[in-house]
From TrEMBL:
<protein>
    <submittedName>
        <fullName>Iron complex outermembrane recepter protein</fullName>
    </submittedName>
</protein>
<dbReference type="InterPro" id="IPR012910">
    <property type="entry name" value="Plug_dom"/>
</dbReference>
<dbReference type="GO" id="GO:0009279">
    <property type="term" value="C:cell outer membrane"/>
</dbReference>
<feature type="domain" description="TonB-dependent receptor-like beta-barrel">
    <location>
        <begin position="341"/>
        <end position="761"/>
    </location>
</feature>
<dbReference type="InterPro" id="IPR008969">
    <property type="entry name" value="CarboxyPept-like_regulatory"/>
</dbReference>
<dbReference type="InterPro" id="IPR039426">
    <property type="entry name" value="TonB-dep_rcpt-like"/>
</dbReference>
<keyword id="KW-1134">Transmembrane beta strand</keyword>
<dbReference type="Pfam" id="PF13715">
    <property type="entry name" value="CarbopepD_reg_2"/>
</dbReference>
<keyword id="KW-0812">Transmembrane</keyword>
<dbReference type="InterPro" id="IPR000531">
    <property type="entry name" value="Beta-barrel_TonB"/>
</dbReference>
<feature type="domain" description="TonB-dependent receptor plug">
    <location>
        <begin position="127"/>
        <end position="234"/>
    </location>
</feature>
<feature type="signal peptide">
    <location>
        <begin position="1"/>
        <end position="31"/>
    </location>
</feature>
<comment type="similarity">
    <text>Belongs to the TonB-dependent receptor family.</text>
</comment>
<keyword id="KW-0472">Membrane</keyword>
<keyword id="KW-0406">Ion transport</keyword>
<dbReference type="Pfam" id="PF07715">
    <property type="entry name" value="Plug"/>
</dbReference>
<keyword id="KW-0410">Iron transport</keyword>
Length: 807
């Protein structure tokens, strides 16, 4: 028996050994061959960067580098089927026998498809447009995208300061550019307005993981060329969503990090079907506990796109949606707790949450008519609805238009209440343009316009009261509606006066009708209507000589007040519209390994709206016009490739941001009859406008597949209000991040990428955002000034780890 078992075991070991030898020989055969080559444009012989080179059935491939070169290793001896694809070019296929001596040269022929770039051309600046801009492509966004919101991904671009309520870059986030906040930054997606029509803000929390469906984004600083939606009063962000892919693909991104942060994203696309159709889809889920106590975010989104791509026509339907639930951390942190309890959250009610969903529908057409004309038309519809819930301790019945409750002989005027404040809105319309380019290329003219309508309901519900009295569940204690029509027409022209010298002009007329009626949340009746007609001209020139482009421009923008300016102010005292006169001048250079941009700007405001401490008749703070204010600065940014392994980049902005004169109002509780004390200031700094903002990026490639990036950010001191009071400030801060990226091409994957991001590696304690208010109380000298500052602290050292698998 022992003998038979031994013989049996010997046979099994022999089989195992033979199998192992066969496996080893197979691995050896795979490992001993490699294929190198270069991919070029068939007509110009220019290298094609980022072309996909794939060997069928082997599961191995590569992406061409900056010179169009590629190398695929660990290939088997014998014949392999090679496939090379690149957007806008015919797919190349060839059988190659390995070993192959020398480098393979592959030339791709262009496909006669209409470019999707024209979808956004009406809102974009080009190299000869006389304005200040920066374009970030999909590859650069992907390096930074580990689930944080769009503002955080743009943190290292010029003059940008970002902030996060929950402290970790997920949830409620925002950005300022040149000191101007989100309500003054115009945002479009495929040329379609994104800003809320009433508040003018953009709520990135409603668009989680949107960066995963963005092909590129252009940031224009100053008035720029923006034509659709809210006026640009500091900058504009123009997004183009994913464009078609030649080949079918799939991608899975997973990640986790500090504060129990998780991200799951799945993307897939058909590639071109029958050489004409393509469908792309994405599904995302992001959750985090947040840095601030209980400031969790639960975010879900999807993106679906289908298109027809012909030689002269493109029709595309985009549907995307985001749904968010976040625990509120809006209150901020009192200054007294900065050193002892940075993660403290004022709210304690377990469902003090914000809940909102926003669905976007875009039907886009772009077409070519003959050799000189192109046209673009987009129909859009956005449906948004949601609420935030609040627990209100010992609140007055009168705030909810409720009678006092009499129990026995006692009159009760207060009780604990839980309320929900709702938004339910529809935004729809169209934007369109037609482009003419003359045969000699000297004239490039765009005529366009758009018409959009916003219809929004605002209402509040009482969902619980400790002492209910005469109430029903979901009683509406306020209810109002607003309808806003926004129409514009424009004409843009670029004329080449002589080789290298271009003249630019842009004339826009924008008309607005805003009607609102009903009861506001402070129980005031707010019935009103306002009409505006704005003329916004822009002029400039650019001069190209060698590798440099010099430019200068003058632009005007007019901006209507926001919803709160209408509803909080007495209807008879609505603030005046704001006006901006913007001068931009600079130079762009791209020569070899060194690129740089340098520009000067002057932004002169008339009737800029600011908070002054003035209150309305129910005690709410309102904004007032200040006659004269300005922003002026110099911005520098550049990059230098020291060698194939080292690249240095960075930017810095120096600015002055001043208000000529304004009056501050401070509540005075030291007297029997409440009043406000007035203080007049001259030549003060505009709030949240640091005089210095800079960043630097050092990139090191020790090997082809490994990238190390050191990212630094400096933001100078900021004031919390417009008084330049040193007791009401945000301290300057300097943060440093480390990003490590490793890319591999294992069998059956197009690529496998691992990204590790260590944020704030030196554990800097900083606050990029906050607010302040002051008031007088009785004191030894008659009255005493009390100032309360609140801050939004950001996380110390934390990390995000992501794994991306592409098929």
């Amino acid at each position: 028996m022992f003998h038979s078992m031994t013989r049996k075991g010997f046979k099994q070991m022999k089989k195992l050994l033979m199998s192992w030898m066969a496996f080893t020989l197979t691995i050896s055969a795979w490992a001993q061959q490699s294929l190198s080559g270069k991919v070029l444009d068939a007509k110009s012989s220019e290298p094609l960067v980022g072309a996909s080179v794939w060997t069928e059935k082997t599961g191995r491939g590569a992406i061409t580098d900056g010179e169009g070169n590629f190398t695929i290793s660990k290939l088997p001896t014998g014949e392999v089927d090679l496939r090379v694809s690149y957007l806008g070019y015919e797919t190349f296929r060839q059988s190659v026998t390995l070993p192959y001596s020398g480098n393979l040269e592959i030339r791709l022929s262009g496909k006669d498809f209409l470019s999707e770039e024209f979808i956004v051309s009406a809102t974009r600046a080009s190299e000869n447009t006389p304005t200040t801009f920066k374009t970030i492509d999909k590859e650069e966004l992907a390096k930074r995208n580990l689930g944080q919101d769009i503002p955080i991904l743009l943190n290292f671009t010029p003059s940008v300061v970002t902030h996060s309520d929950a402290g970790a870059g997920i949830g409620y986030t925002g950005l300022r550019i040149r000191g101007t906040d989100q309500t003054r930054i115009n945002v479009t997606v495929n040329g379609i307005p994104l800003n809320d029509a009433e508040s003018h803000g953009v709520f990135w929390v409603n668009m989680p993981d949107f960066a995963s469906s963005v092909d590129n984004v252009q940031i224009q600083r100053g008035v720029g060329t923006s034509t659709n939606g809210a006026a640009t009063f500091g900058a504009s962000l123009n997004f183009q969503t994913d464009t078609r892919q030649e080949e079918a693909y799939a991608q899975v991104d997973n990640g986790f990090g500090s504060f129990n942060t998780w991200r799951h994203t799945v993307k897939a696309g058909t590639g071109l079907l029958n050489n004409r159709f393509a469908v792309d889809a994405r599904l995302s889920k992001i959750t985090t506990d947040g840095y601030v106590d209980r400031a969790f975010s639960d975010l879900g989104s999807y993106f679906l796109s289908g298109g027809y791509y012909g030689e002269n026509h493109v029709v595309k339907l985009n549907v995307f949606s985001g749904k968010e639930q976040t625990y509120q951390s809006w209150y901020g942190l009192p200054e007294a707790l900065l050193e002892t309890d940075r993660t403290n959250n004022f709210y304690t009610y377990d469902n003090e949450t914000d809940n909102y969903q926003q669905d976007h529908y875009q039907l886009i057409y772009t077409g070519k008519i003959g050799s000189n004309w192109k046209t673009n038309l987009a129909l859009h519809y956005t449906y948004g609805r949601g609420y935030y819930e609040q627990f209100r301790e010992n609140d007055r019945f009168s705030r909810y238009a409720l009678p006092n409750v009499i129990i026995g002989g006692d009159t009760i005027t207060r009780t604990d209440i839980i309320r929900r404040r709702w938004l339910d809105n529809d935004f729809f319309g169209f934007v369109g343009s037609v482009n003419y380019v003359s045969d000699d290329g000297k004239w490039d003219v765009i005529l366009g316009g758009g018409a959009n309508r916003y219809d929004g309901d605002h209402f509040g519900e009482i969902i619980w009261a400790r002492i209910a009295g005469d109430t029903d569940i979901r009683d509406r204690y306020y209810d109002n509606n607003a309808v806003k029509d926004d129409r514009n027409i424009y004409a843009k022209a670029n004329y080449e006066l002589k080789p290298g010298l271009n003249l630019f002009g842009d004339l826009q007329v924008r008309g607005i009708n805003y009607t609102f009626f009903g009861v506001n949340d402070d129980l005031r009746i707010v019935d009103g209507q306002e009409d505006y007609t704005f003329f916004n001209p822009k002029f400039g020139f650019s001069y190209e000589k060698g590798n440099q482009t010099w430019y200068a421009s003058y632009a005007v923008a007019n901006r209507e007040p926001t919803r709160a300016d209408f509803t909080d102010n007495p209807i008879t005292e609505v603030p005046r519209p704001e006006r901006l006169n913007n001068i931009e001048a600079g130079v762009r250079s791209r020569a070899g390994n060194f690129t740089y941009n340098a520009n000067f700007y002057y932004m002169d405001y008339k009737d800029q709206l600011i908070l002054t401490g003035q209150i309305n008749n129910v005690g709410a703070y309102i904004r007032e016009n200040v006659a004269s204010s300005y922003r002026a600065g110099i911005e520098l940014d550049g990059a230098y490739q020291v060698s194939k392994k080292w690249t240095l980049g960075g930017n810095i902005a120096f600015s002055q941001n001043k208000i000529a004169e304004f009056t501050e109002y401070i509540d005075d509780y030291s007297v029997e009859d409440f009043q406000q004390v007035e203080n007049t200031y001259t030549n003060t700094d505009i709030a949240f406008s640091p005089n210095v903002v800079g960043s630097a990026i050092i990139e090191y490639h020790p090997t082809k597949n490994l990238s190390l990036n050191w990212l630094s950010k400096y933001v100078g001191q900021q004031y919390l209000d417009n008084t330049s009071n040193e007791n009401r400030t945000l301290d300057a801060f300097f943060t440093n991040d480390l990003r490590i990226s490793y890319t591999a091409q294992p069998r059956f994957f197009k690529s496998l990428e691992v990204n590790l991001l260590i944020n704030n590696i030196f554990n800097e304690l900083y606050e990029p955002n906050g607010y302040t208010f002051s008031y007088f109380v009785p004191g030894n000298s008659g009255r005493e000034l009390i100032t309360e500052n609140f801050y939004y602290p950001q996380a110390g050292t934390n990390f995000l780890l992501g794994v991306s698998m592409k098929f």
